[in-house]
Amino acid sequence: MRRAGLEKNTYIYKRRDAHDIQESSASPVEDTPPLVHGSFTFYPPRISLAIMFKVLFVSSFLAFFLVCVSVRSAPIPGHLRNTFRSIQAREVFTGGNATYFLQNGVAGACGTVHSDSDFIAAMDQTRYGDSGDVSPLCGKYVKITNILNQKTVTVQVADDCPTCNNENSIDLSQGAFTQIATIDEGEVPITWEYVDSDGSSSTDNSSSGDDTDNGSDSDKGSDDGSNSDSGSGSNDDWSSD
After folding, report:
1. Alpha-carbon span 64 to 71, nearest angstrom
2. I need a labelling partner for 117 at 20 to 30 A (CA). Which of 7, 63, 150, 182 fits?
3. pLDDT tens for residues 56-102?
4. Residue 82: exposure state from Cβ atoms within 10 A (0-12, 13-18, ≥19)
């Protein structure tokens, strides 16, 4: 008896005759009912378990991807947006050194005169900008940490520093420098970050520095002078342009 058959893609066709069915390919799927058309029997393709798992995996991945895209594109609530901005503003700068300088009764680049006991800072010229202008950094607060002993102090930007080592170095008033190092050390490695004016990130002694900084307001300056101890009595010499 002559074999006859036709295999097309994954579909299996079988030749039928009066006595038996001779296969032209693999055995039919036993649990799948065949379709009979004339002298041919058509068996649907078998879908393996591995293929089903692949389809399920791809579908799950696509669904997860679409959810992630929709969440990312959703608008951020205002309070969270402010939090993100605050975190970005608290970037910690490294690789700089802290030094100190004397005021000598001369106004800084920001236009105010300070005493050596005031907690102020002079920023590197690259960050400050044109020394002939009042920089946007003037009046901002900076928290400085001595890497060697982890002591910190919060100071207010009041001047520029054309002689600082690099853009992450800061020149401090004598009063601020002695909060994190000794005069004999002269220069110490630091990290620093911008902070809010409430001084929440400062050391225990930085509260007096915050009061001194706020003394640029004439009314608060008189209050600071009356409440200061013997170590900060030089605030009486503070005048502003």
Report:
1. 11
2. 150
3. 888 888 888 888 777 665 565 655 555 445 555 568 999 999 999 99
4. exposed
The half-sphere exposure of 159 on its side-chain side, counting CA atoms within 13 A, is: 24
- In angstroms, the CA 170 to CA 176 distance is 11
- Architecture category of domain 87-237 in CATH: Beta Barrel (2.40)
Q: What is the pLDDT of residues 217-226, one digit of tens each?
A: 444 444 444 4
CA–CA distance, 127 with 120 (Å, rounded to integer): 16
Indicate the length of the chain as a whole number: 241
Write out the two tokens for 125.
């010229």
216 closest CA partner among 231, 191, 229, 235: 235
Across residues 12-30, what is the average pLDDT? 46
pLDDT in tens, 29-53: 445 566 666 666 666 666 667 777 7
Q: Record the pTM.
A: 0.48
15-18-20 Cα angle (round to 5): 60
Q: Based on DSSP, count helices (H) and strands (E) in the chain, helices before strands.
A: 6, 11
Which amino acid is it at 149?
N
Domain chopping of the chain, boundaries: 7-43, 87-237
- Closest C-alpha to 172, from 231, 115, 122, 137: 122
Kindly state the tokens that stand for 116: 């050596």
Whole-Å CA distances, 47 to 14, 30, 41, 52, 61: 19, 13, 19, 7, 21
